[in-house]
Amino acid sequence: MGSKWRKAKLALGLNMCLYVPKTLEDSPAVAPSGGRFSDTVSLSPTTPNRNSDCHVDMPTTPTPSSSGLRLPKHSSKSSKSTCAICLMSMKPGQGHAIFTAECSHSFHFNCITSNVKHGNQICPVCRAKWTEIPFQSPLTDISHPRSRNGHVHWPQDDAWMTVVRRLPPARLDTNRNISTLFQVVEPGVFDDDEVVDHQPIGSQRSSSTDVANHHSADAIEVKTWPEISAVSKSASHNNFAVLVHLKAPHAIGLLQSGVNQSEMPVTGHNSRAPVDLVTVLDVSGSMAGTKLALLKRAMGFVIQNLGPADRLSVIAFSSTARRLFPLRRMSDTGKQEALQAVNSLSSNGGTNIAEALKKSAKIMTDRKWKNPVSSIILLSDGQDTYTINSPSGATTQINYQSLLPGCMQRNAASGLHIPVHAFGFGADHDAVSMHSISETSGGTFSFIEAESVIQDAFAQCIGGLLSVVVQELNVEVECVHPVLCLTTIKSGSYNASLTSDNRRGTVKVGDLYADEERDFLVMIDIPADRSSNDYMTLVKVKCTYKDPISKDLVTLNHASDVKIERPDTIGQLVVSMEVDKQRNRLQSAEAMAEARAAAENGDLAAAVSVLEHCRKQLSETASAQARDKLCLALDAELKEMQERMANRRVYETSGRAYVLSGLSSHSWQRATARGDSTDSTSLIQAYQTPSMVDMVSRSQTMYLGSPAPRPPLRPVRSFPARPQPR
């Protein structure tokens, strides 16, 4: 058994803290004097008795010296037995793991992982650049105490340790034959999903509820603001703006600090709705090395934070697409099996996004059972080499919507409204196609520029999906005064329509996360008024939506209609600050779209000029002069886009994806990951909800190795830094 593990370890190029039991087929290992291990070697607190029935045999791998490389001669005996970082002893039997780099220098594993966390990926002694980076995962809860020897006390000795090998990306060869990812035969119909968890609903409301008081704890909050408070009777005002502001209810129990969402109840009053989630993961050749390792870690975080009533299915795709397992509840057993499937992924082949999305749609359409919330997460670092870019190299007009099955498009008659949240990974992905997929399905597009941000980006996304409190939301605005008519509703990517007489308008919003906000500007033509009334009632607002847990249809009538004064004469009027902020947001989004169009036509100078002009206009508005946070965020975002349009190379590498991710965020008024930041303190994160911030914070806490509120699930096929006491 031991020799097999060592052979597999060498073949895979892995460096892990690996303990292999001694077997009869192992040849006796005689350690030479002064010998050392080139992998991460874990030293037990006491040296095992070789005459006992059970002992630990340390694995070895070829070292630089055994491969014919000349090692530096400046390493003295004292330096080999002393950690160069903490200057403490590294003698065997002290209970601390030792990491020996490919340059032959050794350090305490805890010391060197702390050094790597701060961005140092070179040897502290000889400054050699490493290709194998030591990594230490968060603490696990070991129920049995371990003895600690030595003078240095590290709080992370019980962590799980491994080494991430930075491999060069594999060259993409779409012409070679690629074997299937897994040998399990898929059924013709994906109706093998696990039964959903039917628990009694705590809410006792009727099937149809009329909520008159918008201050109810579990109802949407509606507020309205007119552009100005008065219009003289003799004057008319075209495109008079009325702001309709919506805020979803707060989900009690979801956002408690330090509480893992997988532990929270998923049914009952004021609890969250369970989710059906399909993750579609790119494992093509370009994902080899660090990218795939970080993707597995990010998926591990997603799996750990799903609840027992949530269901997950994973599709891996390269030249072909394969379902790893059906929709399965994330119980303890389900999580372990999901982790095992994700950890088995390997990278090769081309990129077939269309086939992967068809398979994800098939999972959703064929399932026997349905959870209240459904969503798809798509991640890719390349361009589709089968549907859009044919292997033969034929150039045709690109139809990006062909990547998305017709049944999943927002305007499809099938009614399968499942958003695809797309994540473009790195500088080589096709941002236009990923943005088109998300926009057509009603999802968001995020740009992951830095590899290390992938887990935080996933955390932000599932932080929202695990907090859906409103579904199928429709907002209806109706004119009250008989002489008024609507001209348009500025709603971004949300479908808005007006009746033939322009007296009524509707916005189809869909789902809302807990505490999520939406703002729509309703434009009205106000004629001169010859009546004797001093006030004019403009519009009234009504919302209808479905409770995702109880399935109740809720109707919410706004308590007060929007009114303005109609005096004979008026003095100086002040524009509403709330309306001014939303106008700035819409104006900035329009400038981003115009700048992107100019950049795609090859005129980067014109694109930068459009953004600069918009920034100047923003600075002159009342809200900007009042140092409003949203206006500051918009200015910072426009400035960042200008810098990413400095030249064609920068725009092709990151500018296009950054702009498209920003457009996606503003059009849906929902947070996306852009560049290398998902930090809630960043100015560009204007749409983050508390549940998103909480989940990103949990992700960053786990990444930094601090104690998590709940011990993380023990990964499948991982090995502890020291043998477990028996």
From TrEMBL:
Database matches in Pfam families: VWA (PF00092), Vwaint (PF14624), zf-RING_11 (PF17123)
Region (Disordered): 28-77, 702-726
SMART domains the UniProt entry points to: RING, VWA
Domain RING-type, first and last residues per copy: 83-127
Domain VWFA, chain residue ranges per copy: 276-462
SUPFAM superfamilies: RING/U-box (SSF57850), vWA-like (SSF53300)
Polar residues bias locations: 39-51
Source domain of life: Eukaryota
Gene Ontology terms, MF aspect: zinc ion binding
Keywords: Metal-binding, Zinc, Zinc-finger
Alphabetical list of InterPro entries matching this protein: CLCR, Vwaint_dom, VWF_A, vWFA_dom_sf, Znf_RING, Znf_RING/FYVE/PHD
Transmembrane regions listed in the UniProt entry: none
Annotated protein name in UniProt: Uncharacterized protein
Species annotation: Nicotiana attenuata
